Amino acid sequence: MSSKLTFRNVLKPENVITELHWSDIRFPTSLEAHGSDAMHKDPDYSAAYVTIHAGGLSLVGHGLTFTVGRGNEIVCAAIKSLEPLVVGRSLVDIFTDFALFWHSLTCETQLRWIGPEKGAIHLAVAAVINALWDLWGKIECKPVWELLSDMSPEEIISLIDWQYLSDAITKDEALAILHKQYPSRRERIESVKQTGYPAYTTSAGWLGYSNEKIQALCREALDDGFKMFKVKIGQDVSDDIRRLKVIRKEIGPDTPLMSDANQRWDVDVAISHMTALSEFNLRWIEEPTSPDDILGHAKIGRALRPLGIGIATGEHCHNRVMFKQFLESGAMDYCQIDSCRLGGINEIISVLLLAAKFGIPVCPHAGGVGLCEFVQHLSIFDYVCVSGTMEGRVIEYVDHLHEHFLDPVVIKDGCYMVPSLPGYSGEMKEESRAAYLYPTGSVWKTLLDSQ
Amino acid sequence: MSSKLTFRNVLKPENVITELHWSDIRFPTSLEAHGSDAMHKDPDYSAAYVTIHAGGLSLVGHGLTFTVGRGNEIVCAAIKSLEPLVVGRSLVDIFTDFALFWHSLTCETQLRWIGPEKGAIHLAVAAVINALWDLWGKIECKPVWELLSDMSPEEIISLIDWQYLSDAITKDEALAILHKQYPSRRERIESVKQTGYPAYTTSAGWLGYSNEKIQALCREALDDGFKMFKVKIGQDVSDDIRRLKVIRKEIGPDTPLMSDANQRWDVDVAISHMTALSEFNLRWIEEPTSPDDILGHAKIGRALRPLGIGIATGEHCHNRVMFKQFLESGAMDYCQIDSCRLGGINEIISVLLLAAKFGIPVCPHAGGVGLCEFVQHLSIFDYVCVSGTMEGRVIEYVDHLHEHFLDPVVIKDGCYMVPSLPGYSGEMKEESRAAYLYPTGSVWKTLLDSQ
To answer: Molecular function (GO) terms listed (chains A, B) (predicted)?
Structure first.
């Protein structure tokens, strides 16, 4: 049952990492105004893409971190700076004490200055760690959610860098959470394989859509089986009301509907803007203000909870220390981990455990490119091993760019189907990586030549 | 009196920025183990160095952001990514609405994803903004502290991006703080020109020093007129006690002595470690835990204040939203702004105003390379225009690398003397920039060849 015992049989000390490649891959999504919100008006969904090769292994680890275009080159520069810490390391050593290896990246004595554990360097760590988990899954011949679900509670907590966590959660508390779910995990695996994991869609909710477009997209989403919806708000209260009226008319008064302001407001403006929208029965307001503002989110939460509106945030929450504070101070009702903002699965597990301790549901951020592919593994693991429930939990879903992946997400009747191929599902097709390489891939050459 | 009126006479719309240069400059300080602390054992003090040229102007703006070696190349990559936002801009436009220009760098719709306002991209913003202030000072023929001190309260608050601040401080509150000090500012200018601004030294306090070395360095510092001292602690409580005993014996029981753990501890460990050192009459413990942990610092503060120990932090505090929370929640007794971690003077002014509102003294982080040169301007401006007092305030001082600057700090009798040359004092000698350019400068060539 122990995955570590398994890999020890497959891997040998001579399986040493020989190559860490990175590439700057961008999709010109801004041309179609997909994904525009109150703060990111022209995103080109992008990936700082990593492959990891090891001696004596034909399997290759694929990972990425997500950005929205410009700046992707800076994250690639940061991946390059991590290379000496990765190449030459034995996979057995890494997977035997993954927390120590993670710490060696995030706490490198010189590099940590430009974080620590935040910004470009932490996004780069995520890409590397995501690729290592993909490789580990492929070595074990398991999707990553299963690799994790097959671990014992003790193995799971050994993946985490516990620095700065002990005032909020101890290893013993974490073990108790995991042991509580351990005996019944097989039942949940069977159950989620049957039903999938519920998703919500933002397809009808982007800023600037006409009433007719919103209507058509709501109907399409309902036909596709979606039972939860999200709408982008925050530029103009009267336009928000216009779009919310159309959506509510289409989906009915009680279908879960969430809202997202993408960091648009000051604290008191968030409270007044959302109060003006209280008739629309919104489950949460996401990123109402600066993603760093723990106390601000707590204040907004105290004002809006009596109106039935919860606080969701996390996609820009940069490390476990920030999540710790959001969770312990009641500043977050829905915990939106990001698979690339945090430093990969190792750090994410610590946040899942913190959320379980404080009784806050985890509803991952997705969309972008590759995020849906990653987070399905995390939510399934959370359900099977940590929270033990799907109640109040839902994964974001956006129907963009999945065609570029070898093992794209499968959505049926508004739910993510459980992935079954080995790895972390983030491997992009070789032809896509070539065509969208920035700025020399064929798509960009054509675009830049025509400008 | 209005500097804006002045520059409008000097600058013309055709003074447009034509070049933004960056270079990766590193000093091999790790060879001498200068500056080692509990988390940064081998710093190579480094600068991502910026020069800004404008058409029709012979003056050049020089700025930098500080790092500790590896990772400096990532910040340089981030500066490169900012270039299109800077080159082509008119200096008149920038200085007329500096807050808007600042926002255009920190909130660029794609680049902001890899922050926002944190990590490599924000350090890069600092280098650019520092260079622009240097250029503005040179154009006005004033040191930057004087350029600022000659501005009206209204001009000063127009420098700030107010997004996310209004729940803690309004523009009217900020104006009231500035107007209170405005009539008496000339007296304080004369006074600080006479006395200088008090400094403390860490020279005797680094980890790993022998009793004899500590003794000698304490005596030297006392001879030089220093009246406040800081010691690095946190690796081992018994070694901390050994060194504190030697220092206290040398400087006496009542001379202000501060301590710095450089993020070493978990929250509860910080409390127990510092409780064990309570006999040494330590004014503050600096960075006891993760620099992101507002609630953790608040808890440590509640435990240690009854022992007479305050909480100092800020050198890794990445933006005004974090400072806002530290200040309003009582998590910080001493506010240690960093001239390069925050996005330059514009953002720093907002933190000075927040600190004044919440009654917390600002004691800037310095040392490294160039930091002492910058922060003297900030503390003098704080004294003249914002806080109106030096009580409980002191600037860090480390005697490293000043010889590389054209206008190095001058310390007399333990105080920073007021700088008088135009600009921000961060211009490095051309020969130093050439010799320490990484990895092709003569110093690095020799070093790398010999390894």
So the answer is: L-fuconate dehydratase activity; magnesium ion binding
